[in-house]
Amino acid sequence: MRLNRYLAASGIASRRKCESIVKSGRVTVNGQRVTTPFCLLDEDDLVCLDGEVVALAQEKAVIILNKPKGTITSVGDSRGRRTVMDLIGEHNLRLFPIGRLDKDTTGVLLLTNDGDLAHRLTHPSFQIEKVYEALIAGQLSSAEIDRIEEGVDIGGGEMGAAHVVSQKVSKEGDAEDGSTVIRLTLTHGKKREIRRIFSALDRHVEALRRVSFAGIGTGDLELSQWRYLQRDEIENLMFRAYSD
Fold first, then answer.
1. pLDDT surpassing 60 at residue 173
2. What domains can you pick out in the chain, each with its CATH number?
3. Which of 138, 211, 223, 227 can bridge 131 by disulfide, Cβ–Cβ 3.0-4.6 Å?
């Protein structure tokens, strides 16, 4: 097994984050500092992170949280802001968020101790579907819908695109001309992509909620509530993540 995957499977972080950890010089193998994330490990190699032995996680777990507004998607925050970890409390497992939702976005957030699964669910090449609902003032024109689906320049040398499933008039929001809930799906996940797409169209997003991630929705969970996924839900998640 490659070192970055070993660390991810041990619940340290996602595979991509583990690559950064190795490159930073925090990992040793058999007492020797290693900075190459893709080096191959033998079965009896001793891996340490910051001097602590790293063992493969024996119990795989996934939590779904209905994330509220104003909460940081991070294991910790140097500025002392409330994080999603504060909401789920203490666990005997080394859990971390799968991907990110920005501070003001609500809805489905998955957390796990399985870094390989997290990698599969977040890397664009695996095409895992995420469904969002955005609240905006007024309705989208057919031309705006076409632009969203064809792709728009969202800055930073990136293009953003999504499939517009539906738009429905809503009584929520502050717009004088009424608000509309736009349901969208996407399979990539650039930083703040939905908000940046609407910004490129000169549209302000009043509220944004992730409805589902890889087929997992919040169900009856109220904001800030969480639960462990059941075995059949994890099996379905694994099927989506590992199907070619």
1. no
2. 3-53 (3.10.290.10), 62-123+218-242 (3.30.70.580), 129-213 (3.30.2350.10)
3. 211
